[in-house]
Fold this sequence. Notes:
single chain; alpha+beta; 19 helices; globular; disordered N terminus
Amino acid sequence: MNKLYFFLLLCIVISCKKEEKIIPVKKTTPLPSIIQTDERKIQLDTSLIGSFKSENLQKFYIASNNETVWGDLKKRTFIIDELKKSETLGLNPNDYNIKKIEDFEKKINKLDDTDLALYDVLLTYNFQKYLTHLYKGKLNPKKLYNDWDLNDKPFDVNTILIKAFNDNDLDLAIEKSQPKTYTYKRLLKSLELINKFPDDDIKKIEIKDKVTLHDTSNAMISIKKRLLYWNDLSSRDSLTSIYDTKTFEAIKKFQTRHGLAADGVIGQGTINALNFSKIKRKQQIIANIERWRWFSDTLSENYFIINIPDYSLNVIENKDTTIVRKIVVGTNSRKTPILTSTLKSVVFNPTWTVPPTILKEDVVPAMKRNRNYLKNKNITIYNKANSVVEPNDWNENSPGNYRYVQSPGSNNSLGLMKILFPNNHSVYLHDTNHRNLFGRNNRSLSSGCVRVENPLELAQHILDSNNWSKERIDSVIVTKKTTSVKIAKKYAMYQWYWTAWSEKNTLQFRDDIYNLDSDLYAKLRN
């Protein structure tokens, strides 16, 4: 009997072992050793390194056998200079303990072993931090916003730093740590440009009514001074209260740079832009530099890129802009989310299911006023059994028990087509039944999805690899039958947010429609 029990127990053990999952151990490439040529080396106490609570710092000094590494004056000087001028890259020298580092350097020859060890670790820790900030920003957008879905940007700072150290080329570490995208470079250029402007002490400009060409206004002299300051107006010979032709052209230039309707009419939007001081614009640029570091370091070969505050969509293929479209984006209360994804399919003649937010805030109040509200919009009500519910039988006290579906057609809220891409916010690109909105300057008007101007032309372009011609698309549209087409060509989708950059050595700004810039700058300098 004992033998039988032992046999059964052995079978159970063997069976359990067969079901155990073997978890592979993730192999990491060991860091190369740090090549040191310094005469004075100090053995570091591991408790000193550990006090900084940085895994990257610990790994760095393992590669140096826990010895000091910054005995070379040239290397130390490089780091100190970089940290001091970090402002030119939108960062803050105070984040890198620059004052303490400079104090140590001034008395380098008088430092005992304890202070020399601390100085060495401070240099490494703060230079690592600086490189990391250059690569992916100081702040984590996922901790700031709940509607920003960006891919993580892992950064192996030691691989870059140790190679640069061993090659005596720390410049290379700076270069490799920064985004390579053209927009990032234009943001750095915009910071350089605005730093060349003198300090300003502006007084708020106010107008009661719009000012048009040849009008006389008490505000005109102040307006002209602002245009002169920003180099939109070239001469001071028109500093009068008359809105003359030269100033009219300068206003249009200013309006273009700020994404305003370049009609020369001085309204409140133009005045608001004129009332921005140099320091506020500089802060806006710095906030945008930080924001851009959160985005992808490299872009796909083919992609859609949406700049939400610019109300623009650009299609880039093989580094060439092939399509530019005006778009309508979400309001401040129903923001268009920031995300990175991949286009998957085009749906012609889509139906539209009313989402919960619109149901609660728009549909239910309207239905309580008029039971035929949905019927007039060609929206059918379905109950949980998928049966049609007549408007008079709709229970206004339980609106969430129903599904509300709008039939396909040109008056459908999604228009004649939509483009789908995976995301956590149930948003997509689509046509609209309010096509007149593209003529407006402020197009922060949707419920979160992005509406696109002339979408059928866009669909034809991206389905060219699928051999879908204009005629074929038109033939599907007239059927009013919902048809989904998988996109054969791979396009990335970048739905991002930036309000400042430079073009041809000219500053460009856009209205911060979601009020993100000032708050972000404040957090950066906290």
